[in-house]
Amino acid sequence: MVKRGFTLVFSLLVLLFLVLIFLRQRQYRPQVHKYLLMDTEVDIVLPARRGYLLKQLLPMVNNMISSLDFYDSSSCVSKLNKDGRIGAEDVCYPIMKEVIEESKSVWRDTDGAFDPGFRGECSVGDININQRAISVDGSQGRCVFDFSGIAKGYIVDRMIDFLASASVEYAMVNAGGDIRSYRKDSIPVIVQIRNPYGKRPFDKIFLGNYAVATSGNYERGRHIIDPSTRRAVEQLISASAAAKSCAIADAWATALFVLGKKGLDTAEEKGIGAMIVYGPSNTDKPNIKANNKWRALRL
């Protein structure tokens, strides 16, 4: 009887242990949350037990969207375009300051191939930033800034930063091809670069605590503008960039689409992974070129 009782207790303990392991694994299994933000389907991947963080995250995201929306007449971008100034007292001053500083960085590194000032007579380099204000001298009617080429990546960065600060084990945000991942253990995940014309992706790369963004004309038509000519660019099918921040990757992807093949070497010099896809459209086998930084991320 004692032996049978011991066996039963032991079996129950083993069962309890297995149940606890199962419940723990369920807590940490990935859960995908889908939202429509910035007119884009956004996937947020989190451990199942961390979904409650989205209640805090989404209001922050909506605030950033309303600040950076070019088409919203009440946004901070519209205020800058109308008044030529955003004071430090404005609640969106910190957001605009960060976006403009990152825009200026890519504008300099690409010799103006990325420029949010392409709609007007000024470049992003004409914007002055100090502790009191963001301003453009004599800008009224001349300068029109549109930060759409970097805003989505910037918002993805802030989303990941928030989730990392909440000590999540891992997270990934995919905003229509602007992707950034985060893992405490730094183990990379596999990311595919979508091919809109076939089943096989253009490429597959390992993405650890890193970001990738892709620009192309295949979904929204000819919308990428060369700032030097003010004309739409159509020499490529798509351009992808990989960087430590999604904002930088987003802006570089736009610049690469403008620069074409010569942009690969420029990106390499600046530490940016770059891949371009060109050739006949509507084909499953286009031409693909990448620099060394990009090839190092491949499977």
Count the DSSP helices. Answer: 8
Name the average pLDDT: 88
Query: How many E-type strands?
Result: 15
Strand order of the largest sheet: 1-2-6-7-10-13-14-15
Name of the CATH first level of the largest domain: Mainly Alpha
Tell me the domain tally.
Answer: 2
CATH topology of the largest domain: T-fold
Q: Tell me the radius of gyration.
A: 23 Å
How would you summarize this macromolecular structure in one to three sentences?
The chain has 8 helices and 15 strands. The chain has 299 residues and is α+β, with helices and mostly antiparallel strands.
Topology:
Blueprint: H1 2-28, E1 30-37, E2 40-47, H2 54-68, H3 76-83, E3 85-87, H4 93-109, E4 128-129, E5 133-135, H5 148-165, E6 170-175, E7 178-183, E8 189-193, E9 203-207, E10 211-216, E11 225-226, E12 231-232, E13 238-243, H6 246-259, H7 262-269, E14 273-278, E15 287-290, H8 292-295
Tell me what you see in this structure.
This protein is an alpha+beta fold and 299 residues long. It folds into two domains: 35-148, T-fold (Orthogonal Bundle), CATH 1.10.3980; 187-295, Roll (T-fold), CATH 3.10.520. The chain is built from eight helices and 15 strands. It has helices at 2-28, 54-68, 76-83, 93-109, 148-165, 246-259, 262-269, 292-295, and strands spanning 30-37, 40-47, 85-87, 128-129, 133-135, 170-175, 178-183, 189-193, 203-207, 211-216, 225-226, 231-232, 238-243, 273-278, 287-290. The strands form four sheets. It has an eight-stranded antiparallel beta sheet. Strands 3-5-4 form a three-stranded antiparallel beta sheet. A hairpin with a 3-residue loop joins strand 4 and strand 5 (133-135). Helix 2 packs antiparallel against helix 5 (148-165), helix 4 runs parallel beside helix 6 and helix 6 (246-259) runs antiparallel to helix 7. The model is unreliable at 9-27 (pLDDT under 50).
